[in-house]
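[agent] plan:
  1. take the single chain provided in the ticket
  2. run structure prediction with default settings
  3. attach structure tokens to the ticket
  4. add a short note for the reviewer (M.T.)
[agent] executing step 1
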Amino acid sequence: MDMAPSTPESLTPHVAATTLAFFGFAGGYEPSKWRSALLTAISISDPENLAKFEAGFPGEVAAVKLISHTRGRAILRAIATRTGTVK
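[agent] step 2 finished; step 3 output follows
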């Protein structure tokens, strides 16, 4: 079963769009170098460090968790287009 994690308020259209593109999925746009480095660090973190990232970057951590789920990618696309962020 494809159980996608919940989405915090801090998972903004910008976070969703840049996460989609970073991981090579349609529906987003390229992140900055800084955000790319952050997404890389989050995606390779062990559970202890992931919890630390989640304290400071809850939207980004939620997006990285969602990207591994088919339903999660659909959720990210919906968030990315919510306010016209992605054309």
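[agent] step 4 note for reviewer: The chain has one domain: 13-81.
[agent] ticket updated
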